[in-house]
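Deliverable D2.4 — example input (structure tokens):
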């Protein structure tokens, strides 16, 4: 018997697949991949709900409640690390639910998706860590060749060396250590597991936060500064931040005939001839932005001060606090910058400029370390509890062995 509902859903899905790229071509942000994924997810959810109704069950409400919890938390305040945890909880519950639905229906589409998922998980378990090591060493070589040998550029190399040492020692530890000492050594892998989960949650919300779509009603665009070349020239990484702001500036000007002010934020470093914001202003002037639409903040030395001092300028310029503002920075720095904006009670979300792929692993590691340090007390407490638990188990094992 022909199932007309499935045919209709399939046709609607295919129409969306071909329509979305054409629709995005008319937008400032022409990236269509996120919307294709969103469209597939929407159609798939409708299809799953249809399967449930055929069984006269409503178990789909369980993962749906986790999705609604995430959406409520995210749209109430996007700049929270807990949003990454909530989204990943939804994924775990959702995958478990789909597994149970597969057992109850033996649906061909679910079987194919489950097969692909199992293959991916098998490969991750089989070669995932070793593939990660190869990638980290390769990335470290590329970054050092293109960006230099500073400590900030060596993070992927240091992580690769650390993981290599851990794998070697973990392989031989059970042979050379007594059982109680192996339990003590277990503090390290458990702590690594904890930080892996924290990093995955951070990475999840960082990726989700990339898809901000600010309305064309902004009064200000803050451009976050970074270092200058030879103390006076805007480097490519900073140039992309400015160009992202200019892109939004032109789009809002075209859509509303009411352009926002571009606020360049960055002070003068010890090794710089001029303030970063002044070099950024000159860059924007060369790109055709009128001088009256550019503001400068010349005192900040870090991202927190960028947000704090920029807020003061915007309040003075606007004559109050009821303004609309966004900020631009590189995509890897976007979420942490949002956390700093939240810290100073600045209602502003960010839009991210693209960064070369080879630079991203090192950059995200640097961002993660900075965020861990922002909440170091919490992480020290959890790692301390892990250590106390393993020490307790090691003591029990030691006394049990000594009595035999």
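Example output (designed residues):
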């Amino acid at each position: 018997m022909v199932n007309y509902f499935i045919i209709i859903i399939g046709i609607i899905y295919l129409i969306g697949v071909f329509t979305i790229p054409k629709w995005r071509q008319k937008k400032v942000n022409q990236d269509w991949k996120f919307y294709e994924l969103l469209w597939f997810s929407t159609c798939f959810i409708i299809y799953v709900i249809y399967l449930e109704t055929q069984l006269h069950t409503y178990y789909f409400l369980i993962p749906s409640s986790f999705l609604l919890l995430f959406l409520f938390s995210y749209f109430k305040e996007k700049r929270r690390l807990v949003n990454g945890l909530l989204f990943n909880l939804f994924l775990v519950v959702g995958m478990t639910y789909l597994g149970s639905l597969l057992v109850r229906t033996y649906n061909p589409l679910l079987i194919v998706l489950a097969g692909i998922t199992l293959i991916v998980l098998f490969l991750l378990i089989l070669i995932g860590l070793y593939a990660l090591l190869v990638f980290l060493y390769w990335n470290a070589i590329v970054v050092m060749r293109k960006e230099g040998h500073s400590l900030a550029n060596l993070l992927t190399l240091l992580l690769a060396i650390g993981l290599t040492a851990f794998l070697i020692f973990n392989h031989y530890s059970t042979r050379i250590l007594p059982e109680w000492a192996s339990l003590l050594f277990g503090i390290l892998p458990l702590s690594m597991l904890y930080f892996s989960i924290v990093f995955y949650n951070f990475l999840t919300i960082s990726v989700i936060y990339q898809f901000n779509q600010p309305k064309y009603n902004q009064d200000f665009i803050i451009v976050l500064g970074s270092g200058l070349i030879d103390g006076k020239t805007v480097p490519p990484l900073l140039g992309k931040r400015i160009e992202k702001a200019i892109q939004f500036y032109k789009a809002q000007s075209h859509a509303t005939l009411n352009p926002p002010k571009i606020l360049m934020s960055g002070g003068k470093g010890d090794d710089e001839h001029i303030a970063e914001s002044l070099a950024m202003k000159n860059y924007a002037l060369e790109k055709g932005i009128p001088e009256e639409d550019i503001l400068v903040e010349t005192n900040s030395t870090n991202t927190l001060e960028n947000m704090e001092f920029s807020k003061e300028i915007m309040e003075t310029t606007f004559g109050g606090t009821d303004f609309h503002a966004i900020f631009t920075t590189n995509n890897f720095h976007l979420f942490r910058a949002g956390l700093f904006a939240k810290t100073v009670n600045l209602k502003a979300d960010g839009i991210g400029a693209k960064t070369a792929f080879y630079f991203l692993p090192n950059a995200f590691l640097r961002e993660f370390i900075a965020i861990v340090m922002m909440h170091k007390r919490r992480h020290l407490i959890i790692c301390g509890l892990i250590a106390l638990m393993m020490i307790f188990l090691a003591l029990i094992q030691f006394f049990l062995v000594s009595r035999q």
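The chain has a mean pLDDT of 89.
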